[in-house]
Specification:
The protein has about 1000 residues and is α+β, with helices and mostly antiparallel strands. The chain has 20 helices and 45 strands. Bound molecules: calcium ion (2 copies).
């Protein structure tokens, strides 16, 4: 056995060394340039004036408003829009580390200024989050609600609660990591901005002392983070790491003493005193970085042994054990973001190599680092780059919402093709057999993240220093917006005296995604045949089936050629925005007709401009022009048009009075109604008192008066509104909003949800059957139920309910429903009858489904069902062992039967599936007559909620697309029925 092992080891060594010698060189400077750009793509909040990303704009400007703080800025975590500060701070630390120890490559490639811009952007955010010496905000945005919506950051509409740590809810890992980030950044800014550097250092020291004096895992305080970035390794590593960075930033030996004394607390291999060496540095565990830093800073043999054991394990093995390598040469630690671990460890190898105990070891570590980086850049069996917008055949569909530019709230599109190039983003990477698919929905292998690119950037700078390279001269090339607005139309009806159009206005904006104030289209007709028959333009009647629009009667466009039009404007209350299928498009039905008794010869649609290409099928048409905020954005007008000059303008209302912080919408009307150019600009005589937006929205700022003036672009005509701003003190009122995860309800006492400041409100969480109350999150982090809060701000609170899972043994597997997650050590068996879309697991010893091995694998390919079921066998050794199965419960009919059999149902809905968008709720308990029906889609988004009568017809909104939905029926005080509904 031993002989076999050594032969195998020799073969592996030979293979690895061959790969190293064949490693090619890439343009590392271009990759570094693009990696810096990726961090600019991730920016949240107000963008700086030198923003280079043409498809990004300000976003999430209200972050922190729920807690009365300004928590704007920072980076969106990955392909989502949550700001998870724990990995964000780690990313900032690693980026700064590269800028400190591998500065030369940044400098020679001209990227140092972009690195500093990125570090300043994220550290400004950390400063905002550090609201008191022992108070640090550590997350903005709720994981569940953020992930349930797929669209661009600029048009997010969900609430984004803020979460913090403090003395009673500590988070030593988060505070110490943020301290490390700010200390490291203070070194980067020390020379060219000593004031900023000193500010960062002050925060870093306060945060470290907070971390050290109030011990705890942050993910036990910010519980919403536990589902995404749980602190598995605890905080001992961050306490060493933070002290090391404070030592480097200050030169004060007391910090080094502290780091070395806490080093003893770092974890060891099981049943051993040897420091852990088999994992890798990433957002959770920085121990390996501590080994490398202390080895180099002190030269002590203990640290050198620890880092070399770790790097040997990752290269040619330690004590006969070696990390898994893919056939193509990638050191493969974990299925989730495999490239990130390989590159992070490579950064340590390149940093440490000069201090290695032998030259041969140093060379080995360096060659390893170069081979792993080159694998990521394209030297791999697929001969493809794993960095977006770089090299050969790079990923084009990364799991990234804003880059996708989606308007349908669907990661699978439309649009089918991602609209923006996410330059520089390193994707998760291949599986352990080098296989990889560029699939947007696969967030295990194809997501990008701030933490993936951090050590990656530093290592690229090192290779720029060693091998040169040239950044692209014309980078970034501004993208050309395409398909941002469009009109779809069909013939809604026609007759011998009329045409009726169904016109759909579509907002597909993504450069950046945006919401306009005003949407107008024009329908043009040629009335020559009507004039011949004796009619005049005034004989024609324009009408609409919608209350959502205003429209004009016929206006002359080119009266010599008898071309007239109606202008149709959606009411300003109609929001057309790229946030979903229904949200991104709105319909208006418009009819133009002669008197009904007119002779058929007086009406001819064949010569009508806006009837060209329009038939009974809804499709994109080009002769119905669309104007957004008074600018033509889509379609063609009849040419040549006669220019109708503006002759004046009026503003309504002419006077207005509003209180500080309130707004008033002014409207400017340009005369004549058919003026060709109706655009106006707005200005305020006293912007300190009241400002006005480009669309006439007045915002009151201070007591006084201001004259708001509209000026026409054509002719410079002006009209004004006199605004008086008052400062009336009204009693403050705040709202308390509640949400649940899992299944259950929350009641407020006193009820109502709107309260005067200072009111005590008691919240009671009541779980549904099969669930138990877990904890409060949001404005309250607690496990007590009921919980009482003092209302002193708008608060949103989430009651988290968890499924009560019978931890059945393998003789009696527990039935569980999808989606399902299991974490922790132990052996369990579960049975799933639902339709699994994909499964994933990591850090497990065994994961079998119906006897097929899926250990630590992402897969969407399931084995055949056994007795109609999937039998899951789970064996994990660690608290961070993890399995998850995603998908939906079985189809509607089957789910109904099952639920009835389990006695959960006391009713049904009929028919199911439905085709006519209506059904009857049949309840067995005839005493229940009034119910509330809640319909949610499979992402958990509520698509409809309203009151209904039992045993009477219930109509569903026709806008709800076909699919499978979850229907909850509740009486006044409890849930009476829950089932799946299929809408066909
Ligand atoms: Ca840790
Ligand atoms: Ca005509």
């Amino acid at each position: 056995m031993k002989t076999k092992c050594s032969i195998l080891a020799t073969a592996i060594l030979l293979m690895v060394s061959l790969k190293f010698t064949h490693a090619q060189t890439f343009n590392y400077a271009e990759a570094l340039q693009k990696s810096m750009f990726f961090y600019e793509c991730q920016r949240s909040g107000q963008l700086p004036s030198d923003n280079r990303v043409t498809w990004r704009a300000n976003s999430a400007l209200n972050d922190g408003s729920d807690v009365g703080k300004n928590l704007t800025g920072g980076w969106y975590d990955a392909g989502d829009h949550v700001k998870f500060n724990f990995p964000m701070a780690f990313s900032a630390t690693m980026l700064a580390w590269g800028g400190i120890d591998f500065a030369a490559g940044y400098n020679t490639s001209g990227q140092m200024k972009y690195l500093k811009s990125n570090l300043r952007f994220v550290n400004d955010y950390f400063i905002r989050c550090h609201t008191a010496p022992n108070e640090l905000y550590g997350q903005v945005g709720n994981g569940g609600t953020d992930h349930a919506w797929w669209g661009s950051a600029e048009v997010m509409a969900m609430s984004r609660p803020a979460y913090k740590i403090d003395q009673t809810h500590p988070g030593s890992d988060l505070a110490a990591e943020t301290a490390a980030a700010m200390a490291a950044a203070s070194m980067v800014f020390k020379t060219d901005d000593p004031t900023y550097s000193a500010t960062l250092l002050t925060h870093a020291i306060q945060l470290y002392n907070f971390a050290d004096n109030y011990r705890g895992k942050y993910s036990s305080s910010i519980t919403d983070a536990a589902g995404y970035y749980q602190s598995f390794s605890g905080y001992n590593d961050e306490l060493v790491w933070g002290a090391i960075w404070l030592y480097r930033a200050t030169g004060d030996a007391a910090w080094l003493t502290k780091a070395e004394s806490y080093y003893a607390n770092l974890s060891s291999e099981p049943q051993s005193t040897i420091k852990s060496y088999k994992w890798g540095i990433a957002w959770d565990d920085k121990s390996f970085g501590c080994y490398a830093l202390l080895a180099k800073l002190t030269g002590k043999s203990q640290y050198k042994e620890d880092i070399e054991r770790h790097l040997d394990y990752w290269t040619d093995g330690y004590n006969g054990q070696r990390i898994t390598y893919t056939p193509g040469g990638l050191a493969f630690l974990d299925v989730w973001g495999a490239l990130r671990y390989a590159v992070n460890t490579s950064f340590l190898a390149a940093y440490y190599k000069d201090a290695a105990t032998t030259t041969a070891k140093g060379t080995k570590y360096y060659n390893f680092a170069k081979a792993q980086m080159n694998y990521a850049l394209g030297s791999n069996p697929n001969n493809r780059s794993y960095v977006c917008g770089f090299g050969n055949n790079p990923p084009v569909n990364p799991h990234h919402r804003t880059a996708h530019g989606c308007w349908t709230n669907n990661q699978n599109g439309p649009p089918a093709v991602t609209r923006h190039i996410l330059y520089g983003a390193l994707v998760g990477g291949p599986g352990n057999n080098d296989a990889y698919t560029d699939d947007r929905s696969n967030y295990v292998n194809n997501e990008v993240a701030c933490d993936y690119n951090a050590a990656f950037s530093g290592l690229l700078s090192k290779f720029v220093e060693d091998y040169g390279g040239t950044p692209l001269a014309n980078f970034p090339v501004a993208e050309t917006p395409t398909g941002e607005y469009l009109i779809e139309a069909k013939l809604n009806g026609s007759g011998s005296t009329y045409t009726e159009w169904s016109v759909w206005v579509n907002n597909h904006t993504a450069w950046p995604a945006r919401v306009a104030s005003k949407h107008t289209f024009r329908l043009f007709i040629d009335i020559s045949e009507g004039v011949t028959a004796g009619y005049t333009p005034a004989s024609y009647v324009v009408s609409s089936n919608n209350a959502d629009v205003t429209f004009t009667q016929l206006q002359p466009w080119d009266s010599a050629r008898r071309i007239y039009y109606t202008e149709v404007t959606f009411n300003s209350s109609i929001k057309i925005w790229p946030g979903g299928q229904g949200e991104s498009r709105k319909e208006s039905q418009i009819r133009i007709r002669l008197p009904y008794e007119a002779n058929a010869s007086a009406w001819n649609p064949a010569n009508d401009w806006s009837s060209q290409g329009v038939d009974g099928t809804l499709k994109e048409v080009s002769n119905i022009p669309l104007y957004v905020d008074n600018t033509l954005v889509y379609g063609n007008t009849p040419t040549p048009g006669v220019v109708v000059p503006a002759t004046g303008v009026s503003v309504s209302p002419a006077t207005g009075s509003l209180n500080i912080n309130n707004t008033l919408q002014l409207a400017a009307t340009v005369a004549p109604a058919n003026a060709t150019n109706k655009s106006v600009s707005w200005s305020s005589s006293a912007p300190a008192i009241a400002t006005v937006s480009s669309t006439g929205l007045v915002t009151a700022l201070a007591q006084g008066t201001a004259v708001i003036t509209a000026t026409t672009a054509d002719g410079g005509f002006t009209a004004s509104s006199n605004i008086t701003v008052t400062n009336v003190v009204v009693p403050k009122q705040y709202t308390v909003t509640t949400a649940v995860t899992g299944s259950g309800s929350v009641t407020l006492n006193p009820a109502g949800g709107i309260y005067a400041e200072g009111t005590q409100v008691t919240m009671t969480a009541t779980p549904s059957g099969g669930y138990k109350f877990s904890n409060w999150s949001g404005a309250v982090s607690d496990t007590i139920n009921p919980a009482t809060i003092m209302v002193n701000a708008n608060k949103s609170v989430t009651a988290n309910f968890t499924q009560v899972i019978n931890q059945g043994n393998c003789d009696n597997p527990s039935p569980v429903t999808l989606p399902f997650q299991k974490e922790g050590a132990g052996e369990y068996c579960f049975v799933i009858s639902g339709n699994i879309s994909f499964i994933n697991s990591w850090n497990l010893s065994l994961l079998e489904i119906n006897g097929v091995n899926y250990t630590n694998t992402w897969s969407n390919s399931m084995p055949a069902r056994v007795n109609g079921n999937y039998y899951v066998h789970y064996v994990g050794q660690y608290g961070w062992s993890h399995f998850e199965a995603n998908g939906t419960e079985s189809g509607a009919r089957r789910a109904l039967t099952n639920n009835t059999a389990e006695g959960k149902l006391s009713g049904s809905i009929y028919p199911n599936p439905v085709t006519q968008h209506s059904f009857t709720i049949r309840l067995s308990n005839t005493a229940v007559t009034d119910v509330i029906v809640t319909i949610t889609d499979m992402s958990g988004k509520v698509v409809m909620r309203k009151g209904a009568k039992a045993n009477q017809l219930f109509t569903i909104d026709s806008s709800i697309p076909a699919g499978i939905y979850h229907v909850d029926v509740s009486s006044k005080n409890k849930k009476v029925m829950s089932t799946k509904l299929m809408i066909q």
